[in-house]
Write a structure and sequence with these properties.
By secondary structure, this protein is an alpha+beta fold. It is built from three helices and four strands, in the order H-E-E-E-H-E-H. The two termini are about 20 Å apart.
Length: about 130
C-alpha cells in the first residue's frame, strides 16, 4: 500500500459506524476543524477510517463544499501517520468555519487535532 494514500477501505462507508460516531463519539477541536472520533473495531482490520463533512447551510454551492472536502482530505492524507500504531479509530472531520482558510493553516490544525486524538487514545507518543 502507498505510504500516503487514502484507499477506499480507510473511508467510513457504513451507516452503523456514522451513527455510533454521532451518538457516542468524543470530539477534538482546532479551528476550523472539529473531529468526532470513537475507538472501535473496524471492518478489514484497518487502523482508522475517516469521513469529511462540510455544512450545506454555510456553503450553498457544491463546488465550494467539494473543494473544502478535497483540501481536508489532502491535509489528513499528509498527516495520517500520526494515527499509525494507535488503537483502531473512526474519525469524522467537520469543517466549521464560515469561509475558506488557507491550506497551510488547515494542515497545521489537522496535525494538532490528530495529535489530540492520539493522546486521548492513550498512546501518549506524539511524533
Amino acid at each position: 500500500m502507498k505510504k500516503y494514500g487514502l484507499p477506499k477501505e480507510r473511508r467510513i462507508t457504513r451507516k452503523k459506524i456514522f451513527e455510533s460516531l454521532v451518538h457516542e463519539g468524543r470530539s477534538a477541536f482546532a479551528y476550523p476543524v472539529k473531529a468526532v472520533y470513537l475507538p472501535m473495531e473496524l471492518p478489514g482490520g484497518v487502523p482508522f477510517q475517516v469521513a469529511f463533512a462540510v455544512s450545506k447551510k454555510r456553503f450553498r454551492k457544491a463546488v465550494r463544499r467539494n473543494r473544502i472536502k478535497r483540501l481536508l482530505r489532502e491535509a489528513f492524507r499528509l498527516n495520517q501517520h500520526a494515527l499509525d500504531g494507535s488503537r483502531p479509530v473512526a474519525v469524522l472531520f467537520i469543517y466549521v468555519a464560515k469561509e475558506e482558510v488557507p491550506f497551510e493553516r488547515l494542515m497545521q490544525q489537522m496535525d494538532k487535532i490528530l495529535r489530540q486524538i492520539r493522546q486521548d487514545l492513550g498512546d501518549g507518543a506524539t511524533q
